[in-house]
Amino acid sequence: MPNSRFMARLRWSLPALLLVVLAGCGQAAPELPLYRALADPPAPTTTTTSTTAPPQVMAQSVSRGPQLWPVVDNNIQLTGPPYTVADVVPAKIGVYDSPTAPTPLITMGNKTEHGLQRVFLVAGQDGNRYKVLLPVRPNGAVGWVNASDLNPYPVNYWIRVSTAAHQITVGNAGQIVLQEPVAVGTGGTPTPFGTFYLTELVRPIWQPYLGPFAYATSAHSDVLYSFMGGDGNVGLHGTDAPGSIGHAVSHGCIRVSNSGITKLAGILPLGTPLFVLP
């Protein structure tokens, strides 16, 4: 059963997400982004009525910093379940490149691009700092943040995706809650391997190819870097092409059935670890 903390967050977050637009992941056009979220709806086609557009939530989320984060741990080992996920508490949090670095290398906001609570998946603790997975390039990026800036809590859910078997398995501690075929990236645009986590949950309203729900993840395409302002972020979402499920056909995103993603949207909290395996 989902915990009360997550369900309370889900109740306030999903109505707001009805305004969020996703573009590109399910499209075949190579110039479109792998996964790009926009907060503005299409421009109105008439001026006969007065409407108020929803405010655009700017990413003010990541300060300017190095193009590629310098610390990578591709063999990171997580203890769990339960895993430790943590909310960012202050408006801005400093991210350090070592447990003892005197100054942060970048700062990140406590809200995501679309105004959701920013969370980190915690990998360990070094003194008064937590080692966390970062939702930045390159894949495997890890950093350290002050423990006093985080509100940690346990998460029992986990996701494993086998790209060779085209299969997703989702568990709650030792119980399997979903196992079904998925579509993954092609040979030219593969789904990256590694340990990642869920960073946002959106409900697309103009992109049927994303299905009814879509999670953004901390993973990034290893071959698609910058398209229409996006950065090749990998998503976990539904589809309007059910025949693609079970095949290697995407730009790197993980497509599940619409019934499957609807179930997951009701139970998986942000921060849930995602293990992508060959």
Write the layout of secondary structure elements.
Elements: H1 4-17, E1 21-23, E2 36-38, E3 83-88, E4 92-95, E5 106-109, E6 119-126, E7 129-133, E8 142-146, E9 150-155, E10 157-162, E11 167-172, E12 175-181, E13 184-185, E14 194-202, E15 214-220, E16 233-237, E17 248-250, E18 254-255, H2 258-265, E19 273-277
Parallel strand pairs: 10-19, 13-17, 16-18
Antiparallel strand pairs: 1-2, 3-6, 3-9, 4-5, 6-7, 7-8, 10-11, 11-12, 14-15, 14-19, 15-16
Structure description:
This protein is mainly beta and 278 residues long. It has one domain: L,D-transpeptidase catalytic domain-like. 8% of the residues lie in helices and 35% in strands. A hairpin with a 2-residue loop joins strand 6 and strand 7. The longest helix has 14 residues. The chain is globular, with a radius of gyration of 18 Å.
Largest sheet strand order: 12-11-10-19-14-15-16-18
CATH hierarchy: architecture = Beta Barrel
Task: Using the CA coordinates, give the radius of gyration.
Answer: 18 Å
- Largest beta sheet, briefly? 8 strands, mixed
Strand runs, count: 19
**Overall number of domains:** 1
Percent of residues in beta strands?
25-35%
CATH fold type: L,D-transpeptidase catalytic domain-like
Shape type: globular
Poorly predicted parts: 6-24, 26-66
* Residues in helices, as a percent range: under 10%
Secondary structural class? mainly beta
Order of helices and strands: HEEEEEEEEEEEEEEEEEEHE
Distance between the termini: 30 Å
What does the average pLDDT come to? Answer: 81
Please report the number of helical segments: 2
What is the CATH level 1 assignment?
Answer: Mainly Beta
CATH superfamily: L,D-transpeptidase catalytic domain-like
